[in-house]
Amino acid sequence: MTGQIAVEALSEKEAQGELARLAKVLGVANRAYHVWDAPEISDAEYDALIARNAAIEARFPKLKRADSPSEQVGATPADGFTKVSHAQRMLSLGNAFDAGDIAEFDARIRKYLGVEAAVPIEYTSEPKIDGLSLSLRYENGVLKQAATRGDGVVGENVTANARTITDIPEEITDAPDVLEVRGEVYMSHADFEALNARQAVKSDKQFANPRNAAAGSLRQLDASITKARPLKFFAYAWGDLSAPLAETQMAAIERLAALGFATNPLTKLCRNVEDLLAHYAKIEQMRATLGYDIDGVVIKVNELALQRRLGLRSTTPRWAIAHKFPAELAWTRLEAIDIQVGRTGALSPVARLHPVTVGGVVVSNATLHNEDYITGRDSKGAVIRDGKDIRVGDWVQVYRAGDVIPKIADVDLSKRPKDAVPYVFPVTCPECGSDAVREEGDAVRRCTGGIICPAQAVEKLKHFVARAAFDIEGLGSKQVEQFYSDGWIAEPADIFTLQERFGQGMQQLKNREGWGEKSAENLFKAIEDKRRIPFARLLYGLGIRHVGEAASNLIAREYIRWQEFEAAMIRAADESSPEWARLLGIDGVGEVMARALTKAFAQEAERAGIDRLVAHLAVLDAERPDTSGSPVAGKTVVFTGTMEKMTRAEAKARAETLGAKVSGSVSAKTDLVVAGPGAGSKAKKAAELGIETLDEDGWIALIGEA
Fold this sequence. Notes:
By secondary structure, the protein is of the alpha+beta class. Helix 1 (12-35) runs antiparallel to helix 2 (43-59), helix 18 packs across helix 19 (549-559) and helix 20 (562-572) crosses helix 22 (591-602).
């Protein structure tokens, strides 16, 4: 350390200033190492700074700071949090935005269950806390593990941090032997303001809103930092249980409160849609005075037996929905319109705004959807915004859709500059110069450059390393851009040859700003860890158009093995083949998605890229559903006629849960037909083919409690 005054030569004033500097420098270094996983200084430099800080404190003990680096709790593993697999998946919620959506939700519930409108269905209604989901596992009354939601299947182990939250009991009595309590970690408005004030005094990071502050505080690798942050916790649900908590949602919440958990006092039992809307209006009016952030109201079917019957979709429960609050609005100036090119070649217009605060968050960018939206039309040509187009220089109204994505709602023509001209959407790609074509029936214009377009290549790589795909720690969007720019990676397969191509130490990487020996080693290890990858994550990571995370899971469960899937997609290119019919037979896969899949494996260049990638991987088979004891596992079942004791949707869902494949037509491959009153041609064909046929009572007797 050259240019520094020796500790022995420091005056008291100089020592005070030096301790302040060291606290700031070491604070940044700690966060870079433990939180951001991107060390900014070497271990030797860090150790020298720690030693200098200790020497000054020893010479001037009265000058020791409250935030002294010497008071920090011992080191946390640099690899970050360990992973936790949830015993039961933590799902997200579907959204509702108006009274019509709630009425439709109630109607869907009734239709699925076969319940008439005159028969009451009770719901619970509670504020939707804007925080961070947390799962707490208790065994024999003792807190054993706390985990974040993560991707719903795997979260992060934050047990040490959760123990510092006063709302979370370490021990509970009179509880099931296994009890997984789920809820939300949040920060009150008052505590948030006080935290930011303390951060300002230390010239430390300011948080944008209470949710960010809560999430950042819970995910500290140093639990002492979490302990110093004023976090709170509301319990509202449960996961794994050794014994039921109650027979209803409301009674279960009351049971959690009796066990010592904080539950929201605004949770209410509602007996119909009118009650739900009235309670929503009440909570919305109270929103500004609650003292903590909420972004809507969560509605759940109260009777747990009905929740079990309704079951789950791929990512959301059928028995719950989030009634979101209207977006908050603000006016600002549109300074520019930029075009971004996505991984599928879509040209997406982005509004660059004069920064404005909307719902407590500073917004400087907003989506403009597509070229029709800019002109004041929807994708079908219908007028929106009274036909007002959007021009650079306009005074525009901005809102945050679902309190998340900023969008432009309106234009004030009275403030439009006289020299403002209509925006002309580009017909060539701004990244590669290829034609940008809008196909008939498509709302989006797309670059035709394909693999020669750098924007598409980079966006595909970013998608590949995203959390729901390969989730390679240390390789995020910023690193992908850097590596692509340097010519180190051009396609996903290149990621798995980095170490081989650049050697064990990868000197080129270590010499780059923000990288060192440790971070390079960590990256190589993270890449190696992802050579074993589940089927569904691989499929999602390929970024095939129309194939999302939920669809990838559905497809993986159908084909189980990657090799079988690849071969099937090649055969399914013939749309008259049985393999095409099988693909379309997957619930949730339509013709558009099916063609995108078969096209990906039929195109020579894309298929070659997939093959190069898979050559470096061990693709794990999808998990088969536990159908032990199921009398219909592996069988093809057809339902026809009217179901009187359960709806058709419920019967189908139950059969699939038991490992059966439900088909819409009878063929020689059909194993069982369930025929209710009014069964016609399908029952007749089953009789002609000699296929076993049961009535609804026979079906219920067959599956029993399996």
